[in-house]
Amino acid sequence: METSIVKYDIELDLCGLQCPLPILRSKKALAKLAASEVIHVTATDAGSLKDFPAFCQVTGHELLESWEKEGHFHFVIKKRAD
Fold first, then answer.
1. For residues 81 and 51, is the Cβ–Cβ distance under 8 A?
2. Which residue of 22, 54, 59, 65 has the lowest C-beta tally within 10 Å?
3. DSSP H/E element including 65
């Protein structure tokens, strides 16, 4: 079983939500975090495999880890420094 080795500050379960909701909810959660805090997102939308890396590239947040386990997609994201 693959799990994150990175400690995270918030866990966000977005399973069952379809695009664009996983990204929008993640963006809202990241806005509440301090710089360099980490969020762990779990989603079931297959589109999130492309959406989260693109989101991080555009916004400057760092995608620390990502993996898939039994139809659940996991993303560990570090908020960019302000």
1. no
2. 54
3. strand 62-69
Return all residues near 34 (Cβ < 8 A) that are at least 6 apart. Answer: 79
Q: What does the pLDDT profile of the chain (82 residues) look like in tens digits?
A: 466 678 999 999 999 999 999 999 999 999 999 999 999 999 999 999 999 999 999 999 999 999 999 999 999 999 999 7
* Domain residue extents for the chain: 10-78
The CA distance from 30 to 39, in Å, is: 7
In the block, residue with structure tokens 């400057």: 60
Q: What are phi and psi of 40, to 5 degrees?
A: -110, 120
How is residue 72 written in tokens?
A: 């659940």
CATH 3.40.50.1100 fits 10-78, yes or no: no
